[in-house]
Write a structure and sequence with these properties.
Elements (H helix, E strand, L loop, with lengths): L7 H26 L14 E5 H8 L3 H10 L4 H4 L4 E5 L25 E5 L4 E6 L2 E9 L10 E4 L3 E6 L7 E9 L4 E5 L12 E3 L1 H10 L4 E2 L5 E3 L3 E5 L24 H8 L3 H13 L6
Parallel strand pairs: 3-13, 9-10
Antiparallel strand pairs: 1-2, 3-4, 4-5, 5-10, 6-13, 7-8, 8-9, 11-12
Protein name: L,D-TPase catalytic domain-containing protein
GO molecular function, one term: peptidoglycan L,D-transpeptidase activity
Keywords: Cell shape, Cell wall biogenesis/degradation, Peptidoglycan synthesis, Transferase
Amino acid sequence: MRKLRYPSSILLLIVLILISSCKKNETTESKSKVKKTIEYKKPKSISYHFENTKEWLKINASDSSKLHIAYALNRTDQKNFVKMDSVIIPADFTGDLVYYLPFPLHVAALEEVSKVILFSYPSQAFAAYENGELIYTGPTNMGRKKDPTPTGLFFTNWKAEKTTSTFNDEWDLKWNFNIENKLGVGFHQYDLPGYPASHSCLRLQENDAKDLYKWADEWVLKDRENVEIKGTPVIVFGNYPFDAPKPWFALVKDPKALDLSESEIETQIRPFLKEILENQKLREAGQTPTP
């Protein structure tokens, strides 16, 4: 049987084609794994001023997009916004909400973390990140001076679309997600008067509470007494200046007064990153942690 012989140039061409094909497949595969970042609309300018609430509402009460930003800026909701004498208002409403609240759009130090929720006590705002990308943000009213919200690392535990407060059985909490089972601390929908007013829980607007309720993961129990895998990490940080003017009032003089940089966020998460990633690995693998 006669052997087929190819010139070296043809063999080289075949090898190059195979290498090119492999690289193309690898590139296609890697691109499919890259998570697309959310494109947010930035306002042309960012500045703030005070306005009389009633006068402002006479002109803007029917503009839902402006109301959404105004409520968040004043750390309040529709019910309590109308009760305020004056409110902080941006000169330009053309941007998305993320540009009016303090958290950065991307945090490189969180790129390996699939999900995490951050609550800033000083700025009374929260942010949820997926692999370092800001997914949700909004206002919160946390624990009052007498009953401060505990700070540090927590994990989402159990959740209930509607439950009753352990402080007062007349308080109905919607979209409640517990983060500290023994103390009964969690985030949920409830009135936002525009300052820390809760009995240690983290109050949210209803749309934000519902989004986090659906997005975060519940714990996995080994039995009635033991946790097998923890839920989504939640980091609460900072201190609120209870005896000073509301922090967001400073935005009138300095629009960046509350801005949180990537390095500041990294400082807050660094002590907890190892535990967060270890639990994440267990959740992804579906394994049981060692005692």
